[in-house]
Amino acid sequence: xxxxxxxxxxxxxxxxxxxxxxxxxxxxxxxxxxxxxxxxxxxxxxxxxxxxxxxxxxxxxxxxxxxxxxxxxxxxxxxxxxxxxxxxxxxxxxxxxxxxxxx
Length: 103
Prior knowledge:
- By secondary structure, the chain is mainly alpha-helical.
- It has one domain (2-102).
- It is built from one helix and two strands.
- It has one helix at 13-102, and strands spanning 2-4, 10-12.
- Strands 1-2 form a two-stranded antiparallel sheet.
């Protein structure tokens, strides 16, 4: 039996059925390739996310260490400022004593 195709060509019914089967197998293979590609992309994203999480944890630890150092340095700075203020007061006191002696 013959059928006229959409392009105007004449096909045997069996060859049309075979064409559709072949095309279906080909489409199925393409779908499998697409799923494999999708799976590879997902695997890559999972690896990337895992790497980013490790980096985030590492950076969080480094930030914590730096914050602790800053806190220690702030305490040291305050201590140095207090020592400077005490020294300044002693110098003023000594200068006042010297002024009293020269009178």
